[in-house]
Amino acid sequence: ALPATAEIYEVGPRDGLQNEKVVLPVETKLAMIESLVDAGIRRIEITSFVNPRWIPALADHMEVATRLRRREGVRYSALVPNMRGLDSATRAGMDEIAIFMAASESHNRKNINKSTHKALETYAEVVREARDRGMAVRGYVSCVYGCPYEGHVPYENVEYVSKALVDLGVYELSLGDTIGVGTPRQVAETLRGLLRAGLRYEELAVHFHDTRGTALANITVALQLGIRTIDSSLGGLGGCPYAPGASGNVATEDVVYMLDGMGVDSGVALDRLPSISVEIGAKLGHELPSKYLKAHVGA
Ligand code: HMG
Ligand code: MG
Known about the structure:
Blueprint: E1 7-10, H1 12-16, H2 26-38, E2 43-48, H3 61-67, E3 75-79, H4 83-91, E4 96-102, H5 105-112, H6 116-132, E5 136-142, H7 155-168, E6 172-177, H8 184-196, E7 204-208, H9 215-224, E8 229-232, H10 252-261, H11 273-284, H12 291-298
Helix pairs in contact: 6-7, 8-9, 11-12
The structure holds 3-hydroxy-3-methylglutaryl-coenzyme A and magnesium ion (MG).
Magnesium ion binds next to loops.
């Protein structure tokens, strides 16, 4: 059975842009976010308060977050890796943040320059302080289905990091297939394992990169297990510079097309997405990979 509704968590302005060579002007980013909200997106990640030397494409985080016009009923979030990032997010007026780490030791060292143990220690302080400041905190576990440096990631590592983040107080956990290697059976086994381990399906979200074309199949399995929050990125933009081989996130238009067809209401107007993708693609200097977009533009 499928749920009647699902929620899209749009990561285009963050995950989508973090790996692009062309850095979009702040105005373009703001227009992109506003257009996505106009299309019905109600949860959106707008930037990352990380070291700009690590992610130059989002070096304008402060300007994006302070200039963005907030709208009633829309939840805006941003990645935060440490206390310095939390302080920036606070100054920028964010009321929601997301912390992120991998289920694999090597990816943590490459992506956030910390061991798994040290990352959890850092995030314990970040979450405590963020919640004291009245912020909601989402958590990401990346490399859930495989790691670019270690290959196979044992399920036990995924469960360990997932439970640890929930214990710190994140209200939702997004399970990332950072390099797009997962297949439906593995996804079902992982999700069932986490549900058995005591995580609630309302606090789980899925985050697929469509590197090998398995993202929609994986999302269907997650929906069948009762997961109702799906991360996706406009046009299929995205990838992590510290995950070699990672390609775009699953495209928002591909997910919404599938949900519409299956009678799962996301509140997002599919017909408003292609023009936004075409415009952003033109500004970035390449076509975006969404399959729905290609079919639509070609039609
Ligand atoms: P570090 O070098 O270990 O940090 O980086 P440090 O604490 O030693 O500080 C070094 C310098 O960085 C100092 O500056 C700090 O002030 C500065 P200096 O004194 O040398 O001039 N610094 C900062 N500047 C701005 N904002 C900050 C900040 N923190 C320190 N918050 C750090 C550690 C975590 C900062 C770094 O590794 C980093 O920025 N990493 C971010 C990497 C990233 O954003 N990756 C992509 C997102 S994750 C992802 O894509 C996966 C996901 O999408 C899910 C999935 O797909 O599975 C979420
Ligand atoms: Mg990602």
